[in-house]
Structure formats: structure tokens, C-alpha cells
Amino acid sequence: MISLVKSNNRGKGEEPAASSGSIMSQKAKEKNRFLAAQQAAEAEIISLQQLNEKDKEGQAEVLAVHRELVSSRSFSDSVMTFINKDHANAEAAVEYTVNEIVSMLVLLENDYMRQRAVNIKEIGNRLLRHLRITKT
Hints:
The protein is mainly alpha-helical. It has helices at residues 20-51, 59-70, 73-86, 90-105, 111-134. α1 (20-51) runs antiparallel to α2 (59-70), α1 runs antiparallel to α3 (73-86) and α3 (73-86) crosses α4 (90-105).
């Protein structure tokens, strides 16, 4: 719930402005939603890895890359920075971060790095799915 500060213009039909404390609490809420989605996505990937331990077609390798990416400090930091600076919700921050990383990776001449763009998109979709579950 967003707290509001009193406004001297209330009698004139104007809405009171949101306090800086409410913005901070909203940012904290969005950061916590992202962290919860990140943990849920990692747990999901771990479960899939356990089911695919004896996979000979490379699914286990892809899952290992997904797990590494979803728990990446630089990815998390980018999402958190976007939430802080742009007062964005967690979904917007994840979408922005994914798009930024993908746009850089697809420009590279290295096939391996371009393949990481596909993995980043998949991680973004996984995180967004978990964020939709926690939407209040």
C-alpha cells in the first residue's frame, strides 16, 4: 500500500503527492519480487537438471547455462539498477535488461555468444512467468 503525504491543495481537488518513503517501499517491493522470481526460476532449473542428469542430447548443458545466467550477479545488478533509477516494476526491469543484453550479443561475430542471446531470452521469459505468479 502506498502511503501519501498531506497536500495543502486537497481542498482544490488535487491528489496528494506520493511520499519519497512510499517510492522507496515500492522499489523494495519490486526488488523483492524480482529476487523471489529469480530464486523460483533457479529452483525450477535445478529440478529440470535433476530430471535430465543422463541426457545425452545436450539439454543438461543448456540448463547449466540457464542456471548460471539466471543467478548471474551482473544480470541481477542490471535489473536492480533499472528498478532504482527508473522506478520500474520488476517485469519492466527484466524486459529492459534482457533486451539490452540480447541487442549487444546479436551484434557479435562469435556464434557461441550469439547463442547466449537465445538463452538470455529464455531466462527472461522464465523470470517473467514467475513474476506474473507473484503479481499482487
